[in-house]
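The records we work with from here on pair a chain with its fold. Taken together, the tokens spell out the fold as the letters spell out the chain. The record below shows the convention in full.
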Amino acid sequence: MSKFLSCLILAAALSMVLEAQPLVSEGGILNAASYLSPRLPGGAIAQGSIFVIFGDRMGPATLASAGFPLPNTLAGTSVRVTSGGQSLDCPLVYTVARQVAAILPSNTPVGSATLTVSFGGQTSAARSFRVVASAFGTFSLNQGGTGPGVITNFDSAASQPVNTAVRSARPGQTLILYGTGLGALPAGTPDNGAAPAVQINASSVELFVGGRRASVAYAGRAPGFAGLDQINFVVPGGIEGCSVPVAIKIGNIISNYSTIAIAANGGLCSEPLGLSSTLLDNINRGGSVRYGSIGLSRVDAEITLPFLGTQSLKTDTGSADFEEINLTTINRGAQLNVAGTSAIGTCFVFVGSENNLIPIDPIRGRGLDAGTAINVNGPKGAKTLRREEDLIGSYGETLASTGIPGASGGGDPDGYLVAGNYTFNNGSGGADVRGFNASFTLPPNVNWTNRAAITNVNRANGVTVNWTGGDASSFAQIYGFSLSGSEDDAVGGFFSCLERASAGTFTVPPAVLLALPPSPSGAALFPLSTLGVGGVSAPREFTAPGLDYGVIVSTSIAVKSVTYQ
């Protein structure tokens, strides 16, 4: 046999082996509740926690799950972790070809570690990850790490319903939050069995509801489960809404943000920017709501660029969304407010990778066809919001951009969204939403008064912003963004806070800012860290054949480059 032919046979054999070998994806070792990127501050894996592994060829074609005691090998799959000179087998929760869930043994040494997955007689290449004492993640109802959390209202020992927009909590009521990552079990307690009720790092756990620190009665393993943690806390007073953010802080590590609903007497929640109690009650009784929103938005940015110095950029956009929502949508969906904000007086945080920095709610209502386009007419003329090709009921368009080379509308420094009245129509309409006409007047702007004074933001200290303007019925929105770098695998996140415009001031707390990565050092070709303050109008209702409820909202925000330290 020629040497050439032998090499071909060897290469083919090697190719077959590689195809059968399990693959663990780069960055595919994640907290099972939060799904935070390993490169984010809260993205390490805690001792004793449940984690998931994403990849390929790691298990059988159909899901196999385990009972107690959890085995180290399940349907041919096994997971081994090496850290601090020790190699440990992980108890398995479930396995399928592209995803495996396991528990990191409590005695795994903290620090840099590697992991391999074995299946079908083959073992994957090792992947690196970080082991820490604690890094908590909250489970969410949409199973994506965002939106309403897996949090129950403690009504009695026999009644603990999941907190939702139609089963709100009362101030002073005890709630139970479920997640994973509080930390290791006491020595000698097995990770693979039904755990007893045992406090874990309870003295270090801080839980914030709408930015207010809540009283924590218990933080430890959920009794009868493996790797699952629960935190019992009391809802603080002074905060209500349908999307009240909840976050856990252990040291300077922040969990993913989830939400709960709070109302003075429990039951149906209520928010000025959300659905009315009448509409929520209809949904609670088994009905649905056909809902439409139209938005006008301005971003007025003052950013610093290498070699170009400070540049002023202005972008005006329009959007519209029409959908039918039901009990599943509002109970599991990530946002109930029409302006994409959290409850009044609170902040929400979203973090992700460089190619996933916009939260996309996996729970969406049925899109409603409102026609081929939504037409806008204002002081600067007519514009069209075009229909999104792959998303029924969604429309959008950039109305003007100034200061951006090559962008549309660059010749008019005032942009498109100037003071005055705007009208909207959809012609003859579509199959679901027939033709309508609506009007809206832009409210007075909110003026960020201490904008020039803020250049560096210490994340551990929080930051206070001040403003004037708006009107009695409008709101102020505070926004921040930070990206770890300009490389393709960068991670980042943003926060959005909402307050009444009449307040004139707001402090973004450390529990919000510490969830963002610090700003990178060195120059970049585009802004990597920004802070902004602006206004959100009160919703203006409109009617349309085929809709139960329609609103128009405008937002306008001033943004500048800052450094998050």
